[in-house]
TrEMBL record:
The keyword Cell wall biogenesis/degradation does not apply. SUPFAM superfamilies: Aldolase. Belongs to the HMG-CoA lyase family. NCBIfam families: PRK05692.1 (NF004283). GO terms for molecular function: hydroxymethylglutaryl-CoA lyase activity; metal ion binding. It comes from Nonomuraea rhodomycinica. This is Hydroxymethylglutaryl-CoA lyase. PROSITE patterns: PYR_CT. Transmembrane segments: none annotated. The keyword Metal-binding applies.
């Protein structure tokens, strides 16, 4: 047992929004069999996760790795007290999600023109025409809607993203009726001062979550900074798997184990069992045929 050493200005408790089954598996070269995906989700719930982003109802040709969304949801045993949100880009996706009786979805917008075209086949402006009826219909049906903004710090084609542009996109999404806005560092280039500046530009951290990819090894430092700025929801993927197929330079998300190691050490509650997470990542690494990139998984799985 480690003795925690706290730091001032941190929340007592953090919600870890697990994205491994969606953001992680969407970028794996191998298509993982649906039974294994269902087991992954069950293991995550068994490790204490209360929110597990399970799959995407996107076009199956765009993300073939998640083309089995219906089959997976039919297999996942939805435990009381655990949320199983899914990604939905448009009304066709919403129809599919509603048919599977999901109670939470996430729409995903771009902060830049180029990524809106590459990821959604829409312009920066016309992406909102796609999201507006999705959010309105979902909310009317009693389904909660989270929103992502991608490329919040920089974009591989356009360079640094202007902060006011991110804030405008984010506020429009919240204005549609989304309960939370997850700020995506899709290509993992953010550094702590930039994170603070972006959160401050929103005026309040209350409805913000953070979503860091660990491409440049900055995800943990950025997360600590976001927590000190008042954010209390952090996206992470067990084992650090992940990326975005439409942003080649994106690698895995912040590993849930790396996050939990830090938060346990700080005495911040997550409700997660680190040992069970590591067991899950070791099992998953066997399935994917490559070791987890998480340093904590590597250290703890050596025994
Ligand atoms: P489009 O080609 O413009 O679609 O793609 P469309 O509206 O013109 O429809 C064309 C055909 O696709 C139609 O069929 C539709 O029914 C069908 P047809 O009438 O011709 O037979 N279709 C669908 N079928 C099944 N499910 C659907 C669906 N939608 C249309 N949902 C679209 C537009 C948004 C669909 C496409 O661009 C797409 O699927 N994009 C998803 C890309 C993606 O999933 N990227 C990864 C997730 S984002 C991410 O990872 C970032 C994040 O982690 C945060 C961060 O890190 O920053 C969230
Ligand atoms: Mg992502």
């Amino acid at each position: 047992m480690r003795r925690p050493y706290g730091l001032e200005g941190l929340p007592h408790q953090v919600t870890v929004y697990e994205v491994g089954p969606r953001d992680g598996l969407q970028n794996e070269a191998a298509v993982v069999p649906v039974e294994a995906k269902a087991e992954f989700v069950a293991r995550l719930a068994g490790a204490g996760h209360k929110v597990i982003e399970t799959t995407s109802f996107v076009h199956p040709k765009w993300v073939p790795q998640l083309a089995d969304a219906e089959e997976l949801l039919a297999r996942v045993e939805r435990r009381p007290g655990v949320r199983y949100p899914v990604l939905v880009p448009n009304e066709r996706g919403l129809d599919r999600a509603l048919a599977m009786e999901v109670d939470e979805i996430a729409v995903f917008a771009s902060a830049t023109e180029t990524f809106a075209a590459k990821n959604l086949n829409r312009s920066l402006e016309s992406q909102f025409d796609m999201f507006e009826p999705v959010v309105a219909r979902a909310v009317a049906a009693g389904v909660r809607v989270r929103a992502y903004v991608s490329m919040c710090f920089a974009d591989p084609w356009e360079g640094p993203t202007p902060i006011p542009q991110v804030v405008e996109v984010g506020e429009r999404l919240l204005g549609l009726g989304c309960y939370e806005l997850s700020l995506g560092d899709t290509i993992g280039v953010a550094t702590p001062g930039h994170v603070t500046a972006l959160i401050e530009a929103f005026g309040s951290p209350d409805r913000l979550a953070v979503h860091f990819h660990d491409t440049y090894g900055q995800a943990l430092g950025n997360t600590l900074t976001a927590l000190r700025a008042g954010v209390t929801t952090v996206d992470a993927s067990t084992g650090g798997i992940g990326g975005c197929p439409y942003a080649e330079s994106a690698t895995g998300n912040l590993a849930t184990e790396d996050l939990v190691w830090m938060l346990d050490g700080l005495g911040v509650e997550t409700g997660l069992d680190l040992g069970k997470l590591v067991e899950t990542s070791t099992w998953l690494a066997g399935l994917l045929g490559r070791p987890s990139p998480s340093r904590v998984v590597q250290a703890l799985s050596k025994g």
